[in-house]
TrEMBL record:
Species of origin: Flavobacterium flevense
Record domain Ammonium transporter AmtB-like: where: 49-446
Classification via PANTHER family: AMMONIUM TRANSPORTER MEP2 (PTHR43029)
The protein, known as: Ammonium transporter
Segment forming the signal sequence: none
Membrane spanning stretches: 7-28, 48-70, 82-105, 145-166, 178-198, 218-235, 247-264, 276-296, 308-328, 334-353, 360-380, 400-418
Location of this chain's protein in the cell: Cell membrane; Membrane
Pfam families in the record: Ammonium_transp
The entry's keywords: Ammonia transport, Membrane, Transmembrane, Transmembrane helix, Transport
């Protein structure tokens, strides 16, 4: 069997990255190099225990997403769809260790505006191969836990962001080109956006005052708009009418996502405190409200109550409350889930999205859910001048400006990356392979006996 050149190059790249670890000299005394590190006695054991738990919870969300997506696609594409989510745990982890974390939380690179300095991205060389990232806390970013623990927690967010995108172009993308795209997305879209929102001097967080408690903007909007760009570049499937293969997979995946989302949102408090408890409460309540709203809204529109609808509604609620989880009350979170479910439901059934073939409605659920969460956060977030209802007219205006900028950056940035990827390695599988199904044509595996898959 002739081995394609692109696979040889891929193997060479991973070999270089892994072998170079043997020769990489890790600095032993980071406190003497970077003054931003604290001392070991500033670590709070309770916070460490909670953040370790949260890391595990967020990690399980990616396999949960694999089941969620895998159950929705046709029977010939279950394994390929699940693998596209699952493989992110390998690809993005190494990117994060080598350069991603540096670009997200490294020494800021930006501009001076008046008396303030506002950064766009971190210096890629700051924490290369996790240099200086160890047991000491960071004075500004992670004050009571080891900086390594913070880096690992943030890594799980970076992992799931490109995994979310996969649902949009499921059943028609070539695996090797997909791997290239998620590398480019992680480096050029996710890491800079993460820095701009969450780094202390990040331009979206410090200049525009964007409030994103746990990733509504950073994760869900970026993935949602990248998904929209992807389906426009790749085009429609040959057969866009399929029956979900395994609804129990979808139910299992939803349960894993809901379970893991507690760490996603409540863990973003970075401490074992009351804010974490409130984020837990708002997250669960918003999801419950959205799930019920979705199925009732389906029913009054002539559609039957379905397990699939309940699951999608629950996830939309989780997405919508993410940016506001630690900023609003539990009763307010019900409204977040309610209104986001209605808006997303309307978008899911719109003729436009059906026309461009977003396979699993990623933009309608994650993109629109993230947009709704960002808007609602700017309206309801508690605190003096923190939102529109609390005297923060300027905050609301800045949020809307930032929303527009993020939408443009993530959509057109991803569109360019898709085009570049497609130029290097064509992203669409052949018509023959699409008919056969990606499980067999890309991976030589099938969930069912071959005669059933055919």
């Amino acid at each position: 069997m002739k081995i394609e050149k692109r696979w040889i190059i891929s193997f060479v790249v991973i070999s270089i990255v892994c072998i170079s670890g043997l020769f990489w000299e890790v600095p032993l005394e980071p406190e003497n190099v970077h003054s931003q590190f604290g001392t070991i006695d500033q670590i709070v054991p309770a916070d460490v225990a909670w953040m370790l738990t949260s890391c595990c919870l967020v990690l399980i969300m990616t396999p949960g997403l694999a089941f969620f997506y895998g159950g929705m696609v046709g029977k010939k594409n279950v394994i390929s769809t699940m693998l596209q989510s699952f493989i992110c745990m390998g690809v993005v982890t190494l990117i994060w260790v080598v350069v991603g974390f540096s670009m997200a939380f490294g020494e800021p690179l930006g501009i001076q505006i008046g008396d303030g300095f506002y950064s766009f991205v971190g210096d890629p060389s700051t924490f290369t191969f996790m240099d200086y990232v160890g047991v000491l806390p960071h004075k500004e970013i992670a004050k009571t836990v080891p900086f390594m623990l913070f880096a690992l927690f943030q890594m799980k967010f970076a992992v799931i962001a490109p995994a979310i995108i996969t649902g949009s172009f499921a059943e028609r993308v070539r695996f090797i080109s997909y791997l290239l795209f998620i590398c480019l997305f992680s480096i050029f879209i996710y890491s800079p956006l993460c820095h701009a929102v969450w780094y202390p001097t990040g331009i979206l967080g410090s200049f525009f005052g964007v409030k994103d408690f746990a990733g509504g903007t950073v994760v869900h909007m970026s993935a949602g708009f990248a998904a929209l760009a992807g389906v426009i570049v790749l085009g429609k499937r040959k057969n866009s009418n399929h029956v979900p293969t395994n609804i129990p997979f979808v139910l299992l995946g939803t349960g894993m996502l809901w379970f893991g989302w507690i760490g996603f949102n409540a863990g973003s408090s970075m401490e074992a405190n009351g804010v974490a408890a409130m984020a837990f409460g708002t997250t669960t309540t918003a999801s419950a409200a959205a799930m019920l709203t979705w199925i009732f809204f389906d029913r009054i529109n002539g559609r039957k109550v379905s397990a699939l609808g309940a699951c999608i509604g629950a996830v939309v609620g989780l997405v919508s409350i993410t940016p506001a989880a630690g900023f609003v009350s539990v009763p307010e979170s019900m409204f977040f889930g309610f209104i986001a479910a209605i808006v997303s439901n309307v978008v899911v059934y719109s003729k436009y999205l059906k026309g461009i073939d977003d396979t699993l409605d990623v933009f309608a659920c994650h993109g629109v859910g993230g947009i709704m969460g960002m808007i609602l956060t700017a309206i309801f977030a508690h605190g003096e001048d923190a939102s529109l209802l609390h005297g923060g007219w300027g905050v609301f205006g800045h949020h809307m400006t930032a929303l527009l900028l993020v939408s443009i950056y993530t959509f057109f940035g991803a569109y360019i990356l898709f085009k570049i990827t497609n130029k290097i390695i064509p992203m669409r599988v052949s018509e023959e392979n699409e008919i056969i199904g990606l499980d067999l044509s890309q991976h030589d595996e099938t969930l069912f006996p071959i005669e059933c898959a055919e």
